[in-house]
Design a protein that fits this description.
It is a single chain. Strand 1 and strand 2 form a beta hairpin. By secondary structure, this protein is an all-alpha fold. It has a two-stranded antiparallel ribbon. 65% of the residues lie in helices and 1% in strands. It is built from 15 helices and two strands. Helix 12 runs antiparallel to helix 13. The protein folds into three domains: 42 residues, no CATH class; 110 residues, Alpha Horseshoe (Serine Threonine Protein Phosphatase 5, Tetratricopeptide repeat); 88 residues, Serine Threonine Protein Phosphatase 5, Tetratricopeptide repeat (Alpha Horseshoe), CATH 1.25.40.10. The longest helix is centred in the N-terminal third of the chain and has 34 residues. It is elongated and about 110 Å long.
């Protein structure tokens, strides 16, 4: 047996421990100097060498219980604070609801000309949507649960709408645009289907999530109620194209060009659609109009680039 083990055993022979708190005490002590417990009550147990480890575990368990109680108190306070701020979160959801529009289509980044490329394959379909991101952050999941609970219990439609919009914002922040779109629809339903911008927001979000069939249905539903919105119709046309529905896409984009002859992105994108079915003369004509409407912005520069690249094709 080595020297280190010998010292350890010798130390164990002269030590005893308080059964209440586990602190080491002298064998002659009758009262614990740490907690004041009577050390003579369990002399038989205290004389064995197995008890110190056992009692230290008991002490550690006591500490763990205190820690759990403390954590529960903290969570309770956090829950109260979250509920107190819920109306603020709802308001922020309403104010920042523009994200749904900023992300998509002719009204935003989704239909920027940089994302469109003419293709000689008229049946080309955009790749499937990437796998949905799984939210694992505990605090985010707890926030979602709180907002869902409020949405379910609310009878006031305006508050129900705010809770739904807040949930939509949480899902946007965590890159689940499909669920953000779902809760935008819930907000729309809470308004008795009167706030059409929420329906368009949902369509844009599903479009950005590359869930084109759902987005198309929502765009069509919106356009039945507001047929004069050219940006929404351009988005709808692009969404149809992304499903390989060229004929339907061309029909929708042509309607925008006919009804709004100065809509630059409609001319640019309709030209791209014609290029995809190899009608180059029509495509170049539309790109020329798009360039002439404003040669200095992104759409005008893209039209110029397309004319230079494909202008010689017949």
């Amino acid at each position: 047996m080595n020297a280190w083990n010998s010292r350890s055993e010798a130390d164990e022979k002269v030590k005893t421990f308080c059964l209440s708190c586990g602190v080491a005490v002298a064998p002659s002590d009758t009262q614990c100097h740490n907690c004041g417990s009577d050390l003579t009550a369990s002399d038989e147990d205290a004389s064995t060498t197995d008890h110190p480890k056992k009692e230290r575990k008991v002490s550690a368990h006591s500490v763990n219980l205190q820690a759990v109680k403390k954590e529960q108190a903290i969570l309770l306070v956090a829950s109260v604070v979250m509920l107190a701020l819920l109306s603020v979160l709802g308001y922020q959801g309403l104010v920042s609801g523009k994200k749904g529009f900023a992300l998509s289509g002719a009204a935003g980044a989704g239909a920027q000309p940089e994302t469109q490329n003419p293709s000689t394959n008229s049946g080309a379909i955009q790749p499937d949507a990437p796998p949905a991101k799984i939210i694992t952050d505990k605090s985010v999941l707890e926030r979602i649960d709180v907002l869902k609970a409020q949405y379910e219990k609310e009878t006031d439609k305006s508050k129900k709408r705010l809770a739904a919009l807040s949930l939509s914002e949480v899902f946007i922040e965590n890159e689940r645009l499909d669920l953000a779109g779902e809760w935008s629809i819930a907000a729309f339903e809470a308004t008795d289907r009167k706030e059409l911008k929420l329906l368009l927001r949902a369509a844009n979000l599903y479009d950005d999530a590359k869930q084109y069939p759902t987005a198309s249905q929502l765009y069509a539903r919106y356009l039945e109620l507001d047929p004069k919105n050219p940006d929404a119709r351009v988005d709808y046309a692009i969404c149809l194209l992304n499903q390989g529905l060229q004929r339907e896409g061309v029909t929708q984009m042509r309607r925008v060009v006919d009804e709004h002859p100065t809509h630059q992105k409609a001319h640019l994108n309709l030209g791209i659609l014609y290029a995809q079915i190899e009608q180059w003369d029509e495509a170049k004509k539309l790109w020329q109009i798009a360039r002439n409407l404003n040669p200095n912005n992104d759409a005008g520069k893209r039209a110029t680039e397309l004319l230079e690249r494909y202008g010689t094709l017949q």
